[in-house]
């Protein structure tokens, strides 16, 4: 797949983007793309620490996500700050995703695949994928959806491609052999999730997973997606 001019990564929680597509993000940026993140939830529930509070964890994970994005070269991290585990398919949520699409005008959008049957998937991932899918088509395209955006100077935008990560039957494999180490470095910024006791285990697992994905396409390391293209 060719490097896009601009890509928008719509991710449910801090660390999801680095795990799922951090290598592709780094590779695209390396080759001249501009990449933006939309972080949908605040990540305030993702801990086993009995002394952690949601407010404190929200602050920690927001900073971790900014630090990880900086490692990869991501230009913006837009935090919607919905409570972790409470994403819903609402007009408000859809409107915020449409606004991001109309603001950044991406060629490609990456988001979780909402259509899975044989493997557990966090509910926030399913909702994010569904809302993103609808926001891309037809809502961001058609000017009479969320017409208030026009008063803010935002025009309708036609996205060319969605890449869904976490797909059961991926059809697109992207070589990340040259950015695998950068992907790992970005993931390490999420210390609250892979702290000292889990760091090596998590990075070894991630490297092995990307290696197995790469073997399906003849690459040393790869990330995989289900591609949906739209006529522009």
User: CATH homologous superfamily, by name?
Assistant: LmbE-like
Calculate the mean pLDDT score and round it.
Answer: 94
The biggest sheet amounts to: 7 strands, mixed
Output the number of helix runs: 7
How many E strands? 7
Q: How many structural domains can be distinguished in the coordinates? A: 1
Radius of gyration: 17 Å
Helical amount:
40-55%
Beginning-to-end CA distance, first to last residue: 17 Å
- Which spans have pLDDT < 50 for at least 5 consecutive residues? none
Quick summary of this structure?
The protein is of the alpha/beta class and about 230 residues long. The protein has 7 helices and 7 strands.
Account of the protein in words:
- It is a single chain.
- By secondary structure, this protein is α/β, with parallel strands linked by helices.
- It has one domain: Rossmann fold (3-Layer(aba) Sandwich), CATH 3.40.50.10320.
- The chain is built from 7 helices and 7 strands; from the N terminus they run βαβαβαβααββααβ.
- A 7-stranded mixed sheet has the order 3-2-1-4-5-7-6, sandwiched between helices.
- Helix 1 (16-30) packs across helix 6 (180-187), helix 2 packs antiparallel against helix 6 and helix 3 packs across helix 4 (123-139).
- The longest helix has 19 residues, at 54-72.
- The model has no long low-confidence stretch (mean pLDDT 94).
